Hints:
The structure is a single chain. The chain folds into two domains: 2-207, Ribonuclease Z/Hydroxyacylglutathione hydrolase-like (Metallo-beta-lactamase, Chain A, 4-Layer Sandwich); 221-257, no CATH class. It is an alpha/beta fold. It has nine helices and eleven strands. 29% of the residues lie in helices and 26% in strands. The protein binds zinc ion (ZN). Zinc ion binds at residues 81, 83, 154, 176.
Amino acid sequence: MEICTVGGFDEVGKNMTAVKIGEDVFIFDCGFFLPGVIELQEIEKIGYSLPSLRRVGGIPDERVLDSLGWKDKVRAVFLSHAHLDHIGGLPFLIHRYPNVEVYGTPFTIEVLKSLIEDSKVKITNKLKVVNQDSIHKIKTSEGGIEVEFIRTTHSTIDCSFLALHTKEGTFFYALDLKFDNHPTLGKPPNYLRLKEIGNKKVKALVIDALYSYTDKKPGGEKIAEHLLEDAFSKINRGKDKALFVTTFTSQIERLNNI
Ligand SMILES: [Zn+2]
């Protein structure tokens, strides 16, 4: 097992990790680095192109896979969740990997489709919709390998930890970790399966959580929902007008609920 930390390991954004097992390579996430993308938006005020995104460092520089001789060995892309720093770069890079299938949960793939539409690029790769808590066999040069999507929680829905089960042990990919036992939508993380995988051989664990270096305990999504309810309760119904600006899909979901 060889791991290439393509992007997101020393910054918040453009997450991308490549894992090579024998003669097969698997990509985990392919995101935007938002400050770079915003800079580009302000300068060019038009759609993004691959060269301009590369220039501002808005996407992972996966040309490292060319120099490693890994590029033509990529068999599949797995997406952990729908945030832009995990899927935003994909529409601009996936054409470099023709015939490679992209796996993600229903919500993640829907968000990806809207990004593809917005970016006006043509994608020929198959987008495979898979559910949380499911295992899939991927064709490899040695026959096949299993990838598992394990249900977890975060500030958007339909998130997964990803486990690539290899003969050497499991490669476990757990970015944007946030265990929320009271999610506003969906179920709590699948602790049982995490335990089972942990008890077997995990060869490598890639794990990351914002603010993990602080003592602060992040509130569950329920707390955020209550804060929104509180803000909305101050509106004088029938008299006041309000303009809501939101940037995350999870917040839109809450607005719908309220
Ligand atoms: Zn995230």
